[in-house]
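Researcher: Last one for today. Full complex below.
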Amino acid sequence: MREILLKVDKLKVEGNGKEILKGVNLQIKKGEIEALLGPNASGKSTLAQVILGNPKYKITSGKILFKEKEITKFPSEKRAKLGMALAWQSPPKIKGVKLSQLIEKVSQRKIKIDEAKSLLEREVNLDFSGGEKKISELLQVLSLNPKFVIFDEIDSGLDIKRLEKVARIIKRELIEKNVSILLITHGGQILNYLKPDWTWVMVEGKIICKAKDYKKVLRTIKKYGYEKCKKCKFLAD
Amino acid sequence: MVMKNVKNVNFWQIDHKVKSIFALKGIVVLSSTKAWQKFGWTRKFFEEKPKEGYFIWVKRQPDFPLATCITIASPKIYQNLSNLLVIEKGIRAKANVFCNAEKNNLCGKHLAKGKLILKEGVFLEYNHIHKWGEKDFVSPDYEFALEKNSRLIYNYQNLFPPENLEFKTTIHSGKNTSSNLNFVINSLNSKTKVKDTVFLEGKNSQTVVRLRLVGRKKSQIEAISQIFAAAPGKGHLDCQGLLVDKTAKISLIPQLVCQNKEAQITHEASIGKISEEELTYLKMRGLGEKEAIDLIVSGFLKI
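Model: Here's the assembly. Have a good evening.
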């Protein structure tokens, strides 16, 4: 039996005084790939940010455990040191700081991605296209040598060729090294390449479904939308 | 930090004493006091008979960058410098100007009045670096005269701020001249006053002034950045402040005065704090708060 790496337990979170996560339960085992699907504004990115400790959000109840240790109140840098990493959906610009400079500061291992070469001497995320941001995020999280990575919409803004390449790198550098992954995706394109062990569906701040067959989940969503998920008799929780 | 390659420093003064002078063929280097005595024509550039400081007269194209170093090494020294740099027609030069205190607690005073004359067609890159102790009082007041077709790049940076800094710069721009002023001011436990003024006096004179101000703990910065256009020239002020600590205060006044309808002068100014989102992003990469702030500030200061 694989050990549980991350456990999110009855997590309730507020942002700007409004409840966003309404009691989320989620667990990821070591070496597993999990997918989190959900419509826009369902709370997926908030969950990712909260797992990594973004102080913008207020946890009103519940807890987060990583390797059985409660980390709910840990600052982000401490979580990063424990081996947690997040590839942001919309990362901020850092003016005047080159990507190579940032990598040099945070890097725990040498990593080479051909697509990232042309980005290294540019300022972090400044005038990066959607695809370039994803490549830059991938390079950063890989260089942290993490044990657990959340990819927040890594597949949006990437063309098919780049998506295949990104999926190949994730497989080679993370999956084959037994790193756990949570893939947050709106459209689900990347799942065809990375084939998750479990797929979770989040709607209105709650996980409402956990399924083994991601294809079935994608088909249902494509055909009936997330409204159907809400009415599913096999709802989780 | 001390000047490492002392051999190549043209003028080095420690406290009130001239430590070394290094002049090459075609470059006259003297103390200002001696220049006043030896060259009568220099007197019009000094407000009064100079007590200390340097005179550098570049008559021939130099092969190396010019370098000066003014140091305070003893406690409670009061330097009152008058400096004069004259560069003859058509010469391209680079000057590295370093002023510092050797220790952090010397309670020194460094007043420097400088005149820099760029004759017709001169190009000068002037790199001015300060490194002071936390109890020093420092007041540089430099005036540049740009004659026809000359070009100036002036980079100022204070690596370690003194307790009090009054930093004044004046540029007189003649016909077809251009100046780029890049001022990077760090303030920590200190009071800083900055005043830079560019007079566009000749036709087609141009200037771009970039001011970057960083207010760290217990610091106060007051900056006035001005362009006066009396001739059909172009000018732009780009002034940005960054408040790093809640005990810091920055006041920033960009001012444009136009007296010629053909002139184009513009400005942009902003004061902001460190973005929480950027900070969180870097922390998620494993950087501690201080490391993340330092990285963001270093990026902000890059001009």
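Residues 91 and 125 of chain A are 7 Å apart (CA to CA). The first helix of chain A runs from residue 44 to 51.
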